[in-house]
Amino acid sequence: MLTLLVLAFPAAHAWEHTGGAWAEDDFALEWYTALEYEEDSLAEGYGRTVLQDSWDNWYDAECAAIGHEYKGDRNQAERTTSDGLTTIHWEDPGDEIEPGVLGVTYSITENVIVKETSTRIYRHLTDADIVFNDNVDFGSVEDIEADCAGQTSIESVATHEIGHLHGLGHSCEDGDPCEEDDLVQATMFWSVGACDTQGAVINEDDIQSITSLYGSSATFEAVSARIGANPLAVEFQILSDSEVIDATWKFGDGETGTGLNPTHEYLVPGQFTVEAEVELEDPVCGTSTYTYDQLGYVLACEAPRPAEGAAGYFTVAHSDGLTYTTINHTDVSVYGCVDTIAWEVYKGTSEADITPENLVDLDGDSVGDSLGAWAPKITFPAEGNYVMVMNIGGPGGLRASFLPVVAEDRAAEGSSSCSSSGSSSAAIGLVSGLLAALAGLRRRRS
Ligand SMILES: [Zn+2]
């Protein structure tokens, strides 16, 4: 069987949601502080001020229909997410928070759908509590900016947790490839460093995220294939609950466009982030602009080819005995454009010998084999003449190449030697190589 080499092609807009959301009637959201509302690393009284400020930070999302109301201290020492009262704890009453975690939002939903998009269902949040780690030295933005002694910005952490409380996820998770400033600098970025006050003010990505839950917002999707062979024409469609007036597009390849249903032809291979700035007319917000982007949304590929400077798709080097190492020279500079690979070994000396009858059994089960590794080690069954074939493919098409190899049973050479044997692989007629390979595969599976 042909083996998937590269993992599923990722495409994501920047922000994420948790899948929970408050209903319109829940606003203004009422919230309480627990008994120990004073955090001992903060100046007296600042604990309440900073929570108010952190809630208020989300008002920068002008078109999100949100609101909050502080109801005071409710003298609640334990955390109970099922009591329906949104409570913020400075202490960690259940010692639930692991070291290194600054704060946690615990929320629960009931099985009532409050919002539905083309890709997601949101269930009704009924309670959400925030607990801060009581072993962290928190500081105000002012203190940190004046003279930081290792404090963590409480406003950054509180604003982040209040984002979670509204149903927002992270702009990037720990370990995600994440380089775009807008994501790294978002309040909803997964971490914040000591002395770092970033995140104390929400940014454009955060605004998109909360507005898409609670305000006039729009998304888009491709209504034709967005992954395929270059040149690739992609048709996009704006989706919105609000009245859409117009949209301005950045297709990611330097080209722009307008309209609610444009088709753009990608002429250069690559992975492209698409952005639409959508003009909306909405009863809540009047006329507004909402920007929505999807990272790496379009993938236009050429058929696999050798990397620049490489003479062929692959070479083979002797390793030890009858074992040889393959070196794969296929260009992988556009991520996702190679996703399938199959190697075969045939008895013979030339392209004409690439036939199902000549397919070599490599693992001793009397059946010809196909290997799915990127650059497999091959152990030939005996000395002699062979033809190695690599079939490689992706959204841009399939290619096959072959290389005649004379297998000799000899000891490994000095470690300095890494020369490839003979000439580089030559591309062969796509169909003949692949058909041979697929015939072999079919036989093996039956
Ligand atoms: Zn978080």
Write the layout of secondary structure elements.
Elements: E1 3-4, E2 12-13, E3 20-21, E4 29-33, H1 46-57, E5 68-73, E6 86-89, E7 103-116, E8 121-132, E9 138-139, H2 141-147, E10 152-153, H3 154-165, H4 181-184, H5 204-214, E11 218-222, E12 227-229, E13 232-240, E14 243-250, E15 256-258, E16 263-266, E17 270-282, E18 286-301, E19 314-320, E20 323-328, E21 340-347, E22 377-379, E23 384-394, E24 397-407, E25 426-428, H6 430-445
Parallel strand pairs: 3-8, 4-5, 4-6, 6-8, 9-10, 12-18
Antiparallel strand pairs: 1-21, 2-18, 7-8, 11-13, 13-16, 14-15, 14-17, 17-18, 19-20, 20-22, 21-23, 23-24, 24-25
Helix pairs in contact: 1-3
The structure holds zinc ion.
Residues 160, 164, 170, 190 line the site of zinc ion.
Structure description:
With 446 residues, this protein is mainly beta. The protein has three domains: 16-214, 3-Layer(aba) Sandwich (Collagenase (Catalytic Domain)); 218-301, Immunoglobulins (Immunoglobulin-like); 314-445, Sandwich (Immunoglobulin-like). The protein has six helices and 25 strands. Strands 2, 12, 14, 15, 17 and 18 form a six-stranded mixed sheet that branches. Strands 3, 4, 5, 6, 7 and 8 form a six-stranded mixed sheet that branches. Helix 2 (141-147) links the parallel strand 9 and strand 10. Helix 1 packs across helix 3 (154-165). The longest helix is centred in the last third of the chain and has 16 residues, at 430-445. The radius of gyration is 29 Å and the shape is elongated. Mean pLDDT is 87; it is low at 1-8, 415-423 and 429-446.
